[in-house]
Amino acid sequence: MADDVVEAMIRKFGSHFPFLEYSWHGGEPTMAGIDFYRRALAAQTAFYGDDTSRYRNNIQTNGIGFDDEWMDFVRAGKIALGLSHDGPASVGTRVSRSGKPIADKVEGTIDRLIERHDFHPGVLCVVTRANARDPDGLYSYFKAQRVGALSLLPHLGAEPELRLTPDLYGSFFTRMFDLWMDDPDGQIERLGPFDHVMAKILGLPRSICSWDAGCFRDLLSIEPDGGVYLCSAFQGDDHRLGNILTDSVADILDSPNLHAARAAQEKALAECEGCDVLDVCSGGCREASFFSFGEIGRRDPHCEGRRILVKHVAGRLLDKARHFSQGEV
After folding, report:
1. Cut 0.85: pTM above it
2. Cβ count within 10 A of residue 114
């Protein structure tokens, strides 16, 4: 991404929205080099001045090549850091350019961050049919890795052999929730999406796009050429909203493609009418629908699995409330 794209993004969107989170991801973001991010943060400072309450940054990386210089930089810049790690090499799907599993290298990065910097990173784990078969083993693995937080994201890509069936989704996520809830150590402080699901059940204002129907409301993806898209998952002319270098934010937000996507979102939600967990599920993820059915106006393919999870979490929370009301801890 060229500097003029970064500067236009910060200036135009920063002038339009009261708060922005800049999520640097896609491919491997550290390949842009640390100097790219130094210039990006300098551009933010030039625009926002000392008012850091209006924005924040996060970087999602596989951690390979993330050395002490990078760690010092993200700490000085107060950048949230997340590592992408799908579990041990025996079940992980991430590979290097040469096709070799990278799990061992990511494990080394985690050890280095903890031992040298006393930093227990949060991890984003993509859940596939491979690592979902043994939730107990996966939970124990990440505990042994000493991660501070864990986010579980079902595989949503074009590879059908990796996608979870609704039954596997339900059994995996309910078991992981129970393991986390019943863990006396509390080492993994946050485990997503359960923190978001519980917040939705309790009526608290915390959620993520796939649980809040927010993908065409709260999120935009900026490509290196300045192209603006609905989401990093949706590319091509049908999903292009404009270009940050040449278009105003008002025109981008009034794009016919954005209006069409929102109409498709409503069509998908109509399929969910009458569902007893819709207030929590919010109709699911449009990326999952797109890769499973070729269109975004369809119900989430994990629908029944999500329903199983929501009912299970709600039941556990109700049991906890009963115990507290009876004076039990």
Report:
1. yes
2. 16
